[in-house]
Amino acid sequence: MQLQLTKSPSAEDVVDALVELGTAPTAECELTLPSTFVARTPFDYADYLQVVFTWGARPGTKVLRVHARDAAGARAQLKGEHIQIAAALADRIVDLARNEVTSDAVDESAKRLAHKRAIQPRAAGVRAPVEQMIVEASRFPELAHSPDLTAADGRGSLTVGSEARALYGWIWPRDRYETLLANASSGEVVVSTDGTKHVQRQRWPDGHPYLSSPGKKIPYRTLAERLVTIHESAQQRRWAFSSRPHRAEDDLGAAVFELSQNAHNHGARDRRNAWLPNQVRVLRTTTRRFDRDYCREVAESSRALAGWMARHLDTVQSESSEMAIIDIVDNGIGLAQRAASLLGEYGDLDDRKEFEYLKRALAKSTRQGAHRMSAEGLARVQLLMTDLGGAVSIRSGRIALFRDFIRTPYRVGPLDLFSDWIPDDRVAERPARRGSVVTIIIPTR
Prior knowledge:
By secondary structure, the protein is of the alpha+beta class. Helix content is about 35%, strand content about 20%. The chain has 14 helices and 15 strands. It has a seven-stranded antiparallel β-sheet with strand order 5-10-11-15-12-13-14, with helices on both faces. A four-stranded parallel β-sheet has the order 1-2-3-4. It has a two-stranded antiparallel sheet with strand order 6-7. A hairpin with a 5-residue loop joins strand 6 (about 150) and strand 7. The longest helix is centred in the middle third of the chain and has 19 residues, at about 250-265.
């Protein structure tokens, strides 16, 4: 089987590729990727990755074909992260003439991905880069865990449990009776801001690439502070909507922490609870300005997303604004499949069962640890996205859901967590895809 992707595929192109991957004979599968990728909508990059992940999970030999005429050209072609990730999943890599370049290409992929272990810091007052990415790839042991996402658990292992919580943002109390604990050995302290105490990390974790940058002493910034720049106008709207004292960055950090836990916990093991042999997890952030014209362009493929964009412009009474898009992607067996396997169901899931198990996977509780947290999961993320006036898309297996938190804000209560979510309206056919994607979209102005 041979599959070739263009540099800017439509949603229908992605569906066609997934259908082909799901129905082709389980023999050698050759994937040809362009050297560059151009996204039409905020969902496109993660959807592209899921095609690569679905290819990488197929039985049989996975062959990556690059647009090059020799090994030196193959190394030069590995500029895009999508090709670097595909190289980490490939059994063989060949050039256009199908000459073997595996060794050179894999070595080059490892070198380039080594620069994707952490989100770059920035000086105070300087806007974050337009696009940044963290890639964890277990094919390269030194790149299997990002120091931005995981922390030592006290037993010599790295975890994305509560010990890592302060990496993502300041930790604020859930109620006035909560006792906040700081891990002094990790550089955490309890700080009071406007009479409210919170836990704040104040130094880079051991082994972080920015702990000892040559010739520079870079002050510590939480992951959320480095992911996006939230303009004062967006901060003011959030404070007007929510009575909680948290900064918008800390709400974002709490949401990313919740979703990163899902990627690590559900995306790392197979149905029998064994470690997947070639895990990849991606956290990608990008910012984009948009106006009414772009809303109309996006509406051609996603009316739901275009509706959120238009409602935000109406809210701020402006013809243009800016949004941050954060993708959290893994190449695991899927949220629903993983939840089903934990409960002893290993067969194929019909649509109803897949939906029910997806709810179970997302409505989880965080393990107790250095920081007291419970009743977390999707409810927490929805509350935070309501405060931020954002939107969230979830794509896993055959399910694709979307929620606009301006149109349908989340309110704590006994209602079904998915009662206000709608099916993603981009395509009618939803073939199974490998892994899970959660996309957070928030206004930054």
